[in-house]
Protein: Energy-coupling factor transporter ATP-binding protein EcfA2
Organism: Stomatobaculum longum
Amino acid sequence: MGIRAEHLSYTYGGGTAFAQPALRDVSFDIPDGQFVGLIGHTGSGKSTLIQHLNGLIRATEGKLFVDGENIYEKGYNMRALRTKVGLVFQYPEHQLFEIDVFQDVCFGPKNMGLSKDEIEQRAREALGMVGLPESFYKKSPFELSGGQKRRVAIAGVLAMRPKVLVLDEPTAGLDPRGRDEILDRVKELNHSWGLTVILVSHSMEDVAKYADRLLVMSDGEKRFDGTPKEVFKHYAELEALGLSAPQVTYLVQKLRKAGMPLSDEITTVAEARDALLPLLKGGAPC
Ligand code: ADP
Ligand code: MG
């Protein structure tokens, strides 16, 4: 049934005279199983918005429905919401604190009051999902690389078996390989498990590659909402918001202007390669 936001607004600091709203009148509907990329300049309200989704922040105005239930209704089970909507913060490695990787991933299911067997089974399953084999279980989180730490943090949330996984810039500061490994895994879970994913990202390449849909924020407002192809057609307007389209989009636009018969819907390197190769082999003018 998904997540439905109706006219969400939020102001930090209890709305004092000088407070600027961090979110203004944001509405959207995210169906189950969708992979959503959330983009916007720094300070546009992305982190504020996602903290609403599992009840960490309560909207100053507006309504939020998760699986058809109004989460602001009296008696709503916020604890259950936090397991249903799993949130991985930016730089989650700062929150790894248990003695070893396995204990760390057990932390969430332990808090859910599950049996020891169930806790351990979930931890194993979650570590498998993020591609960390048994040889990692007894390692201290501090012995791991940046990408491995992120994966442990994601496993800690997956072990609660959420329906929705929200990731706040999970690849910031990682090398390209670590980045692709994490996002490939997440896409795989989205695909095979029907997990809804909301990915906050600075990388237009990443959201073009992985997301079914993009929400673009600017100054606390939702500015664009559509498939990556629809949204990146507005690259000039995105630039005015301090954003850009994937680099390959600019190359394709240039080639189109030079007369090459290319679609204006190309947003990934793989698509550009597939469109260009036959033209180059055919000796098309450029
Ligand atoms: P983003 O994640 O897109 O960078 P944020 O949601 O962090 O944006 O910030 C949105 C706005 O809210 C910014 O103007 C930011 O300065 C402000 N803000 C964020 N967190 C706090 C906070 N804890 N207290 C006061 N203002 C905040
Ligand atoms: Mg942020």
About this structure: Residues 71 and 77 are 8 Å apart (CA to CA).
